[in-house]
């Protein structure tokens, strides 16, 4: 609904008056009390920060935790540092946002010619002993430099099964010394990622699984955070780091490790930091606590009584335009002219027009007619995600944000891909198909937002993350996973793929099956996700020419020919099964390939015992593991015609689960009851049939194999009685 012109103009006036003062930094930085030192070198030190006096610590010069030491650097110049550290302070700001710009060290690991570690530094400094600072996620990013390295950082309180709320980092790879290019930082020699909020330290972790022997073109790995726009990758940085420190912006607030009050709580505290009637309180946007700002039309230092001073707009004609005689009134910007009204009105109308264009470009006229998918407005989506405040993950197809619907249902909101006119029909069809995929083992698409340049897709939320993290968590994050749970995950994932391949209205090839794309809900039910690489094919078409996917999981035949078929997903699922029974990543140990070592074990010993996870390998489970291993061997066949289809894979896994259940319950051989169907039931083509994750519609061949498996189970049970 369009706003009336009068209401629009009034809105513009209010916006202009409110926003204009916030464009300014404080004109003066005031210390407290008058005898406190307010500069160090060329840096101004505003309260609540302060410097200890030469006679001793003057606690009135700064709040606890905000002390600055004024020391001489190696060149003999006075520089401010965070108290009791070597962290140099470049600038301190109280308005319009609380910020400390500092120099933080670069973390590194260096190797000799044989790949041995010669030096290591994680870059950590005790920059947050009192809890004042957070590394700004809005103004910094994380870079990793090196060839064949992974580096990450973590932060936040314990989150569920892990010690921290988030882990973020990236992988940098080089094929050879000529791979990296100046100015290119997309995974070859250099990678970079956004960082989440609530990060309190600069500590970097290096994953040292890859060999660095004879890599003279990259003898060291580096990881660091740096303010956005302040670093550009150069190939020479791989052999000689550009600097030992990088400029980083820190957010600060009134808080400590012991206490962190919101504005509502702090106003009744005797230590309330917002001083004077012109000082306004705001809740911190990065971590707990609060900060202060002068009210609109004023500037200065809101932490000091009478620290907020009126802005005389008449003395700043370059910022506040005035036509005619200008007269200043405290707190009000009278220099805002009709020209600004017109500009703001034009911008608002342009934004509305642009949103309508995005909606049309992204297929809104077709998708809004769909009954089983909700079209969210941009404002609704911002409310759901809290303006994208919590990032769940980031991949090749965009970021994923955590959100909450009005009924408190948790959702995951994912960026799609940028759509042009040629792609509109493909994107529209993909959304329609995904919305029609109703299966317990496929992540459900709930809706989308089309009023943005890059469409946003709203999915159901998987509370237990992805299988990659569960299988390969390290240290205290590593959990015991029973064989039964692994079988259930394998069966559920297979059922989801079987549905995509055979039961959906259109045959769908996923194209990127891997543990990271298998999510687990709060009941540990697996759900296939991330259809960004999927290709929607008609039933009479066998392949498409889009060679995408993840190395280690991608079908070699597909990689060579570009022909994506259902058997390509079979190969990728075989690798996932191998990870489930071995609990080893694709590359493990001293650069060992899981697939190569597994095939070698079967060639030499006709058994996968050398690869199986010792946590689940017992005498009673070895038969199940060997059968899964043989199934993996068939899935990894070079000849695609010799690979089983998804129906057979799912059926064989279900039979193994049934056999294991019956062996554990010899007195109750019908733990999982057989299903009886009429011929019409077996031949049904309905795409809306609900498929259980443990039992499905099956062919006669499935029941024949089931009888064979039951016979084995009975024989085993009898021998144990």
TrEMBL record:
GO terms for molecular function: ATP binding; polysaccharide binding; protein serine/threonine kinase activity. Keywords: ATP-binding, Disulfide bond, Glycoprotein, Kinase, Membrane, Nucleotide-binding, Signal, Transferase, Transmembrane, Transmembrane helix. It is found in: Membrane. InterPro entries: Prot_kinase_dom (IPR000719), Protein_kinase_ATP_BS (IPR017441), Ser/Thr_kinase_AS (IPR008271), WAK-like (IPR045274), WAK_GUB (IPR025287). It is a single-pass type I membrane protein. GO terms for cellular component: plasma membrane. ATP binds at residue 414. Residues 386-656 form the Protein kinase domain. Residues 1-18 form the signal peptide. Pfam families: GUB_WAK_bind, Pkinase. The chain crosses the membrane at residues 331-349. Its main location: membrane. GO terms for biological process: cell surface receptor signaling pathway. It comes from the Eukaryota. This is Protein kinase domain-containing protein. It comes from Zizania palustris (Northern wild rice).
């Amino acid at each position: 609904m369009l706003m009336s012109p009068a209401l629009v103009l009034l809105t513009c006036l209010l916006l202009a008056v409110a926003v204009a003062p916030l464009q300014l930094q404080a004109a003066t930085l005031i210390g407290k009390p008058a005898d406190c030192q307010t500069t160090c070198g060329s840096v101004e030190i505003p309260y609540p920060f302060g410097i200890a006096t030469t006679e001793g610590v003057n606690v009135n010069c700064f709040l606890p935790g905000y002390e600055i030491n004024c020391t001489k650097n190696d060149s003999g110049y006075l520089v401010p540092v965070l108290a009791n550290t070597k962290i140099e302070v470049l600038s301190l700001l109280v308005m319009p946002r609380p910020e400390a710009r500092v120099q933080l060290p670069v973390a590194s690991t260096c190797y000799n010619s044989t790949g041995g570690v010669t030096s290591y530094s994680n870059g950590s400094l005790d920059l947050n002993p009192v809890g004042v600072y957070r590394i700004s996620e809005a103004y910094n990013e994380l870079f990793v430099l090196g060839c064949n390295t992974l580096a990450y950082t973590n932060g936040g309180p314990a989150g569920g099964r892990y010690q921290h709320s988030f882990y973020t980092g990236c992988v940098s790879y080089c094929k050879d010394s000529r791979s990296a290019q100046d100015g290119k930082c997309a995974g070859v020699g250099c990678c970079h990622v956004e960082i989440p909020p609530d990060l309190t330290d600069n500590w970097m972790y290096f994953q040292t699984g890859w060999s660095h022997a004879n890599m003279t073109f990259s003898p060291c790995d580096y990881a660091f955070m740096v303010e956005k726009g302040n670093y550009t990758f150069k190939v020479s940085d791989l052999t000689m780091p550009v600097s030992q420190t990088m400029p980083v912006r820190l957010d600060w607030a009134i808080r400590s490790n012991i206490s962190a009050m919101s504005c509502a709580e702090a106003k009744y505290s005797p230590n309330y930091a917002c001083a004077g009637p012109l000082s306004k309180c705001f809740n911190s946007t990065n971590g707990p606590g609060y900060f202060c700002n002068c009210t609109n039309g004023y500037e200065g230092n809101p932490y000091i009584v009478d620290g907020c001073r009126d802005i005389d707009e008449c003395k700043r004609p370059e910022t506040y335009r005035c036509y005619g005689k200008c007269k200043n009134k405290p707190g009000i910007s009278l220099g805002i002219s009709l020209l600004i009204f017109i500009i703001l009105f034009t911008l608002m109308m342009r934004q509305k027009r642009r949103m309508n264009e995005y909606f049309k470009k992204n297929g809104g006229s077709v998708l809004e007619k769909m009954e089983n998918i909700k079209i969210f407005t941009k404002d609704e989506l911002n409310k759901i995600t809290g303006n994208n405040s919590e990032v769940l993950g980031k991949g090749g197809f965009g970021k994923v944000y955590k959100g909450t619907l009005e009924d408190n249902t948790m959702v995951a909101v994912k960026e799609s891909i940028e759509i042009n006119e040629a792609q509109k029909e493909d994107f529209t069809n993909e959304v329609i198909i995904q919305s029609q995929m109703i299966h317990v083992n496929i992540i459900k698409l709930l809706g989308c937002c089309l009023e943005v340049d890059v469409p946003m897709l709203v999915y159901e939320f998987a509370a237990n993350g992805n299988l990659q993290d569960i299988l390969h968590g390290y240290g205290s994050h590593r959990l015991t996973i029973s064989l039964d749970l692994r079988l259930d995950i394998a069966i559920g994932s297979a059922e989801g793929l079987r549905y995509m391949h055979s039961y959906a209205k259109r045959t769908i090839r996923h194209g990127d099956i891997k543990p990271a794309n298998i999510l687990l809900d709060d009941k540990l039910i697996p759900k296939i996700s991330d259809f960004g690489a999927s290709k929607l094919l008609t039933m009479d078409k066998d392949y498409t020419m889009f060679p995408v996917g993840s190395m280690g999981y991608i079908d070699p035949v597909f990689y060579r020919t570009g022909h994506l078929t259902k058997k390509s997903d079979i190969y990728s699922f075989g690798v996932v099964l191998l990870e489930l029974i071995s609990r080893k990543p694709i590359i493990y140990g001293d650069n060992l390939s899981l697939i190569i070592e597994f095939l070698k074990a079967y060639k030499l010993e006709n058994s996968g015992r050398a690869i199986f996870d010792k946590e689940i390998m017992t005498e009673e489970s070895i038969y199940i593991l060997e059968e899964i291993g043989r199934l993996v061997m068939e899935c990894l066949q070079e000849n695609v015609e010799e690979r089983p289809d998804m129906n057979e894979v799912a059926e064989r896994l279900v039979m193994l689960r049934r056999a294991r259940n019956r062996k554990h319950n010899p007195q109750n051989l019908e733990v999982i009851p057989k299903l009886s169907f009429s011929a019409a039931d077996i031949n049904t083509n309905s795409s809306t049939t609900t498929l259980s994750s443990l039992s499905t519609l099956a062919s006669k061949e499935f029941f024949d194999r089931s009888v064979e498996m039951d016979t084995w189970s009975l024989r085993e049970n009898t021998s144990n009685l």
